[in-house]
Amino acid sequence: MTLTALVTGGGTGIGRAIASRLVSDGFDVVITGRRPDVLAATAAAVGAGHVAFDAADPGAVRAALGHLPATVDVLVNNAGANMARQGLAAPAGDLAALKKLWLADYESNVIPTVLVTEALLPRLAGNGRVISISSIAGVRGSGSYGPAKAAILPWNVELAGKLAGRGTANVVAPGMTAETEFFNNTLTEERREFLIKEIPSGRPGTPADVAAAVSYLASPGAAHVTGQVLHVNGGGHNGR
């Protein structure tokens, strides 16, 4: 019997790589995101289905349920963004802008993960897997983005307890990852070289590195792994 996987934020970068890897692993994959054109192109390229909706909007999530799989074996919560990298600024001393930025990062990273998971829990198959993408920023800090990604970790521990006996919940936390939209053309070459020097492995990660970790957690071999954080950063969370 073919298993089904759903990947939020599956149109580009890490999400696309995860979707492609899970298709290769034999899953029927559905990707979601807010950009219908990007989703459609990726779905055609990797051999997945696609449903466009805003995972941070409760109404949109509810409306999308009729188009999502009736049974989900693997849910990958990848949707998220660093809002400062997306152009949302908080000038020094502007407390209203600072509040807006912090709330925007929380809404962009934590809320989609929680809403989609809660909506699909009744559809999670026996021995189902929930895999959520956090970040190295969740353990090393990074303005408002780091705390938002950090919030996923204790939530995941609680979810693992809730799923005990019927499935697992784990987090994958990438470090600096090339070939994604994360930096949104804001990364200077000087900053890039500095970040790479902090990585003991000597290179940035790739979306395929993260997808391989997700593939493991979705596999039968990870059936006894739950409530954990798998760091995929070349040792970068410790620095040199």
UniProtKB/TrEMBL annotation:
Keywords: NADP, Oxidoreductase. GO terms for molecular function: oxidoreductase activity. Gene3D superfamilies: NAD(P)-binding Rossmann-like Domain (3.40.50.720). InterPro entries: NAD(P)-bd_dom_sf, SDR_fam, Sec_Metab_Biosynth_SDR. PANTHER family: 7-ALPHA-HYDROXYSTEROID DEHYDROGENASE (PTHR43618), 7ALPHA-HYDROXYSTEROID DEHYDROGENASE (PTHR43618:SF8). Belongs to the short-chain dehydrogenases/reductases (SDR) family. This is 3-oxoacyl-ACP reductase.
